[in-house]
Every structure is written in C-alpha cells, then in structure tokens.
Write the structure tokens for this entry.
Amino acid sequence: MSNSRIAEAISSAKAYLAAHPDEARYRDSVASAVVEDGLRVRVTGADGSSLVTDMVAGVGGTASAPSPGWLFRAAYASCAATLIAMRAAEQGVVLSSLEVEVDGESDDRGILGIAEDVPAGPVSMKVAVRAVSPQDEGTVREVIAWGLDHCPVDDAVRRPVPVELDVHVDRP
C-alpha cells in the first residue's frame, strides 16, 4: 500500500470514528492457546490465523518454535514499526527504510518462582529505531515519537492494564 493510500485510509477511519465515537471502543478478538505437547502451544484466532510457541530445552521445551517472550518482543517491534509508518504516511514524511528492534533483559528466577521479589516478565526493555529519510532529523524524530506514543503494545508495556482472570476447572 502506498503512503497516499495509507494516509487516505487513516483519514477515512478518523472521520468515521469522529462521526461514530460509540464504535471506537470494542472487544479485541480472542487468542486461544492450547497445549499440544509438553510446552509446545498452538494459538489460534477467530479468523483462523495461528502460531506455535515452545520453550527452550533448559526448562523442558524442545525449542521447536519461538518462545512466547520472543513473540511479545516481535509484537512490540512490529507494532511500533507499523504506527511509525502510519504516522509518516499521514504526515507525508518519506521513510526510505525503517527498522525497529526490541530487546529486553529478563531474570529467570522470576519465571521459575525461585525469587518472589523478581518479576516474571522483563526487568527492562529497549526499543531501537533506525530510519532513513530525506526529511530533517527533527521531523523524523517527531514521527517516531508519535508512533511509539500511539503504539498499543508500547502502551501495554508502560501502563498498568487491568486484567480479569476467569478460571474454569472441569473434571474428566
């Protein structure tokens, strides 16, 4: 999709939601995870999309697929790149290339429950953005900052999000 098509689509979406604000908030589609074998898990969506995760051998997996933590970082990187590209298109900023890398630091004592004061999730995250553009650096930096400020995954990392737990246990 060309930048002009992206900009047109965003403009149309903004106009529609401004006229229909009651349709802006919605329930996201469900991701349903089922353990296939050991620590290998298949996740499917309502639209039929699917992916598989596995853990490293050191914790009992077979490393046959990416770990959930890597997919989290992949989601973060792709979401940030998408929002930056959307904003660039909307603002008419040409990005000859755009690369977003997301890295994190983790402490396995948290995920394994060895130390209760250590978080199970990442203890830090780093987002590195590389852009090539004929525009001035300040403009490109503004586009990048806007993209990260409006990236849903970045927001979920930075802001505490309420989580409701609903557990059902059935007997065989």
